[in-house]
Amino acid sequence: MSAPGTATSLSIVLTGSGGAGVMTAGQTLLEAATSCGLYGLMTRSTGPQIRGGEAAAMLRLSTQPVQCPGDKFDILLALDFENIQRFAAELPLDAKSVIIADPADGDMPAFLKASGATAGYIEMKKLAKAVPGGRVSMVALGALARLIGLPEAAIVEAVAASLGRKKPEAVKASEQAVLLGAANAPALSIPKLATPISNSTGRWSFTGNEITGFGVLKGGVRFVAGYPITPATEILEWLAHAIPQCGGEMVQAEDELASINMIIGASFGGAPAMTATAGPGLSLMTESLGLAVASETPLVVVDVMRSGPSTGIATKSEQSDLNIAVYGMHGDAPHVVTAPLSVSDCLLTAQWSAHLAESMQTPVIMLSDQSIGQARVVVDKPADIRFETKRLTPTEPIQDYARYALTESGVSPMSIPGMAGGQYTADGLTHNVKGTPSSQAQDHIAQMDKRRRKIEAFDYGAHWADIDGEGELAVITWGSSTQPIREGAARARAEGVGVKLIALRLISPPQPKLLAEALKGVKRALVIEQSHSGQFWRYLRAFYDLDIEVTPIPQPGPLPIRPGEALAYIRKGAQA
Amino acid sequence: MNMIPTPAREFKPADFKSSVKPVWCPGCGDHSVLVAFQRAMAELALPPEQVAVVSGIGCSSRMPAYTNCYGFHGVHGRSLALATGLKVARPDLTVIVASGDGDGFSIGGNHFLHACRRNLDVTYIVMDNRIYGMTKGQPSPTTEPDWDTAISPGGTGVSPFHPLVIALASGANFIARGFTGNIGHCARLIVEAVRTPGFSFVQLLSPCVTFREDQQRVWRNVVHEAMVPETDDPARAARRLMTDDGFNLGVLYRGARAPYQPRPLANLDPSHFESEFAI
User: Fold this and answer.
1) Domains and CATH numbers, chain A
2) Distance (Å) from the C-alpha of residue A426 to the closest C-alpha of chain B?
3) Structure ipTM
């Protein structure tokens, strides 16, 4: 191995057609890099095909924790050129980038040539054929490892770990292929990664969806029902194996209408409950979300957003379900909407969402999205945060029970089937304090007041937003847009531009007093979000008195907001 | 929370009655279903707090609030899904679902198929009057094709749905039919349905006195006790239900399929899963 490198961060994209093993290779590279003490992020982009579609594994390896893609790719490793043009917009490259390709794949597509990137060639397919059972992706990883200064042994170790050490011949073949790739690495000038001093001890590796499952489990959820949908299914899959080990159950429902009603039923029965879905599923669930509001049944719905409307782009991200999450229900239906601010933050926000649902006996919609849900990060072990999650129940023996008693907090003791004297009928009909259906104006208004009171009077504490930095310019954002803006803001500050970042984790109910407090001294604000119509900006305009100059910057999906773009917005905003 | 059933409590039908006055028309068959339900619960000696009555929307779905049990009056068509979540989370409860021909067979049709297929230990009572009563007289999936209404002038021209055949084909473990003109028999069927493990489907012909004026009189004359005893043979039951005139009363099928009931495997603390994420 050559001398230790100096690069603190490298962005690498692996592309290829179906069956080329792009995702597996990306995962192997991430594992190898993190075993050497690096931090990392891997996001995925795929076509709509079930098998055999084009795929891109996008990695960012760094000596510092990373939670969003970089501005451009330093290295593009093309296992082949088939359909690569479909990713053109997702593959920013420049003259400093390098492209590693197989000469057997012929001429480089025009958009790659136009990027000005330097190309280096290695006969990946031919070399792989020379090894019995050798894979092209392993040859490619060997070459890549040599070029970026990762020990080839780390790649082989990662392969062995993923094969479970059960297939010694396959591991041997991979090792040979990796070594062959390394020996034949093209002569390209790439800054090698600095060898970190620390090792990976104590770090965690997870996807946003997996850690969301862990978060709700930590938050007390013990019943899950769900219907498969991209890009949310991994939450259900993670919980399907975990929740029965923690005293709970999981049911695969026949559709989303069923999954939302199943969790209402389970929660009514006393089990904290959740489901996970995406936009089309959330659309189907909205009627019954209203039932959960009216019947005051706690539950969590995680919406892993994708590009809409309708089927949209099922595999790619967008923050465009804010409107339906906030306003989707008919009638006046106060409820809670939250959003994780990064892949890691899915843990805290999911756990908090379960806590909020149980504490207020309300549905909570958590707006995650594909860009964080299906991204994998390697980070330091997250803080072990605990909430006192306890549903308010009546004291036994129960006498003259009124399920929907008008309390000061708006939260009334909720009896659980089995409690003698606590019998009531939960109802979507307007009801009186006992739960008895009523069409009288005073009952309607008293119950609406109560339901609004419990949501608005609740003390959400410091988690409502992440705020950092100072300046006359602020960026207000939410959810997954936060991380690239955080990075862009840090770069702006390094240039001497003061900027305050306000990232909302609590979308609804609005917190106008807290935001006004946060905006003290701020003269101009940028509202950056990933939607076409500026849903978040319009939401802010509706509920917050922003008597400062506000510039909406809505950027539709599926392309991620990159830190450099955020930096450019901030620079421009600071000059205004 | 007291989850342990108290031994040897005795109950009267009145113990299962709430003080809420039904919205049903005088003479509606659903009143009789309510009485039959109360008698059945008393006979089963189930403490009211151990019983949950779940429903959707429609005349029949008003049932829960008229009982002294735990109840859930949810949205249109989704009662079986809600009951599924409740029963999976709380297998100790007796879960009864009250529905109608519109709620259960039209808007809730898909859940009907999957509830039968899942075969959870739940009792599904459908009050069938072959009409949408709450919305004032539109044809339901069991309405005769020539029934003339404002929304379907001259009739729908569409053959009625055969819920019992569909229940059998989808995997229901107990299938019975009753007529609300005989409350004692309806109560008997509910008792049998609750006692039989798995998904029990009870169709109760429950005349609508407002939008199907002659229904009560006609049905009283045509209903008859099943000619042959109940069977546990699905093939025999299929033939029987396919040739059924719709007025054959009694237990028509009782299988022995094991109910679905997912159960926790362990009771570990979630921190157990930290090791999955640690490198």
Assistant:
1) 9-183 (3.40.920.10), 205-380 (3.40.50.970), 392-458 (no CATH), 463-575 (3.40.50.920)
2) 5
3) 0.97
